[in-house]
Amino acid sequence: MKMSKLFVQTLREYPSDAEVVSHKLLVKAGFIRKLTSGVYNYLPLMWRVLKKIENIVREEMDRAGAQELLMPFVQPKELWEESGRWGVYGKELMRLKDRHNREMCLGPTHEEVITSIARDGLKSYKQLPVNLYQIQSKFRDEVRPRFGLLRGREFIMKDAYSFATCQEDLDKEYQNMWNAYTRIFNRCGLDTKAVQSDSGAIGGSVSHEFMVITDTDAGENDVFYCNDCDYSANSNHAISKLPEAVIDGKGYFKEAKVLDTPNTHSIEELSAFLNIPSTLILKSLVYIVDKKPVIALIRADKAVEETKLMNAAGGVEIRIATSEEIAEMMEQHGFNAVPGFIGPKGFEDIPLFADETVRDMKNYVVGINQTDKHLVGANHSDLGRELNYVDIRLVERGELCPQCGKPLFVTRGIEVGNIFQLGTKYSKPMNAVYLDQNGKAQPYIMGCYGIGISRTAAAAVEAHYDEHGIKWPVAIAPYHVVIVPVNVNDELQMNVAEKMYNDLQAAGIEVVLDDRDERAGVKFKDADLIGFPYRVTVGKTIAEGLVEYKVRETDEQEKYTPEEATQKLISSIKSVLG
Ligand code: ATP
Ligand code: MG
Fold first, then answer.
1. What pTM does this model have?
2. Could you give phi then psi for residue 206, rounded to 5 degrees?
3. pLDDT confidence band for 200 (50 / 70 / 90)
């Protein structure tokens, strides 16, 4: 490809709406253009990158025994009613109506469609196990589309679904996909960490996310990990051991009694006023899960992890209640207190979840829905109901590894893929069954496996860049090499550049010849910004028979004869591409 013909327009400035590196660089370097919020054009350079990632994914999925198919982008409401998700998926599901007033949605994921395909085609145990996948655009009306391709509304995903007759076969396929994912991300030039995770709206039990670890804002997930063993988990799923703490207040309170605690609106104020550690205070928090209030009880020095609480409550949407909502809830229950003094007693009609930290607390302090008062020396029998314990706690840095007891660390990660064990979550309600050896109908045991193709491309930029631009890993770079003749009007330079260009192309290397009549500085800047893994400069040293060879990732520079440079490029690039 000649640079003069390449469809690319680099910008002088970063786009004003871009917060993270990959968004800034992909726009500035001419890879993507926003069409509307969360929806991007993939311009020719981007499309080459995406196709390369797709092909790596395809090769590894095929190698792992999965079969590719393609499902429609538009899906009928009826299927989503069968799975029970039409009512619960929420606003991310883009719903529309056709001319006959039939309701449809744009596919945010394809569990329903694939399950209906399996139901029609996989009737006997003899046909199982099977893994089917596609590479396709998805649409999710994300609350906060942002960060360019990292969180778009329309994005490209590889989604695979496996069908088995027993847990053992599902476990095998899960491991098979784990191995395939490891190869895929390695080949893409990405270091990933597989972490335990919550299984969210898709449902199921066991799941792992493949994270690209980053210290930047682009990492939307907190990942807790242990340096001494292999434990690592998304914060929405992480658990920890806590260091010892004072959880029995018998040294502070002889008996249960109501105490005046004026102006103690916060935990800090209350523990300072009573001169007790905050581990002796039971905190009551109100959340709104799927539009209804729930109460969470937790030891006051700890915080609630919303996803855990939402799952415990069986919901799909969660937020903390506003002071107005809490005030209203109190009023409806006959209390006339400031929200900060809320306590569980008297709200027996509202679902309540007590964190595991509450289980062994004794003689503690709790709100009783009276302004400026607390019950001290309280015990669970004072709360007006039996407690159900569940882990709803947010793990914090420095807490101890649940496996080996060493301190946990936290970092940020970009989720590029995930694997889930779905079990019969879709097959049961959708009556998707096969006949077993005894001729009995059984629901498939399913797994699902996603990779964000477009997010992976952006994550690769987050992991490989410098102040000058992108540093594409060779395997997914839009082109491998750029050849820059310093002066296109110099016949010798142009002849050498063109010969190298032709020789490299003949060897299957993807090359751009920067034939523009521009200053060398301009061309170098564009080369660095676009992120070609290799640059060859044909300049004055050609008089001595030498060209300059530069590696973008390491900045390594050498002078070689054009023949040597050509050979070196071919062997380095082929060694990566295999
Ligand atoms: P997230 O927690 O980041 O919203 P998810 O759990 O909703 O992801 P899945 O539904 O499992 O993700 O989708 C599979 C993969 O698709 C994810 O691992 C991610 O790489 C990609 N993906 C999900 N949502 C988006 C998005 N809005 N933009 C780009 N890629 C996405
Ligand atoms: Mg999501």
1. 0.92
2. -85, 135
3. low
Residues 6+ apart with CB under 8 A from 273: 261, 262, 264
Q: Tell me if 105 sits within 8 A of 171, measured CB to CB.
A: no
Contact 49, 161 (CB under 8 A): no
Runs of H (alpha helix) within 188-314: 267-274, 306-312
For the Cβ of 146 lying below 6 angstroms from any atom of ligand 1, the answer is no
pLDDT of residue 246: 96
CA of 279 to the centre of ligand 2 (A): 35
| Å from CA of 323 to ligand 1 middle | 33
Gap from CA of 188 to ligand 2 centroid (Å): 23
Note the CATH number of domain 21-239+410-463.
3.30.930.10
Q: Which two tokens stand for residue 213?
A: 């670890």
209 phi and psi angles, rounded to 5 deg: -115, 140
Answer whether residue 81 shows pLDDT above 60.
yes
Domain with CATH 3.90.960.10 in the chain: 249-383
Helix/strand/coil for 412: strand
pLDDT in tens, 455-510: 999 999 999 999 999 999 999 999 999 999 999 999 999 999 999 999 999 999 99
Assess whether the C-beta atom of 514 lies below 6 angstroms from ligand 1.
no
Residues of the chain with CATH 3.30.930.10: 21-239+410-463
- Domain 249-383 coded CATH 3.90.960.10: yes
What fold characterizes domain 479-577?
A: Rossmann fold (3.40.50)
Which atom of ligand 1 lies at the shortest distance from residue 202's CA?
Answer: 10
Ligand nearest to the CA of 221: 1
Report whether residue 415 contacts ligand 1, using a CB cutoff of 6 Å: yes
Using the CB atoms, write b or e for 377-393: b if 16+ within 10 Å. Answer: bbebeebeeeeeebbbb
Residue nearest to atom 29 of ligand 1 (CA): 151
Q: What is the pLDDT of residue 535?
A: 98
The pick from 54, 455, 461 for probing ligand 1's pocket by mutation, whose C-beta has the most ligand atoms within 8 angstroms, reads 455
CA quadruple 376, 377, 379, 384: dihedral sign: negative
SS3 116: helix
